[in-house]
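Re-run with default settings, no changes from the original entry. Doing this only to confirm the output is reproducible before filing.
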Amino acid sequence: MARQFTSKFATVTRTEVNYVLQEDLDEKGKPIKGSLEFTLKPMSKKQIANYQDASSRMNVFNNTILLGNASNEIDLFRSNVIGMKNFIVDGEDYPFKRENNLVDEKIVDILPLDVIGEVAREIIRISTVSEDALKK
């Protein structure tokens, strides 16, 4: 029998998603008031393929395979974060800017790598599950 496909499971989610860091959720999983919120766009299939290619490294000398790295996460963050709310720096609301379709490098310099990594992993997640699964 030939392989069959369904449009119910699209590889790439088409809608933008708002995301709050795990540390900014209360015990019920709801965002704490005033939490930093990111607006994320899912990756295209081409971006997913490029990320998978760039994230896989094999060291034949010690038989290890490494998946993912911080520079890939920064690239994902810069290309797929399209908005931020409640980004407070030195007590003031910091403006969100994109230049050449990328998040401004100053924003990347301000945020810790663990925050960038968590957001990048969420971008991967929303890009590889169906829209129905995201609603659950």
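Strands lie at 17-20, 37-40, 56-59, 64-67, 81-85, 88-89, 92-93, 98-99, 102-103. The chain has a mean pLDDT of 82.
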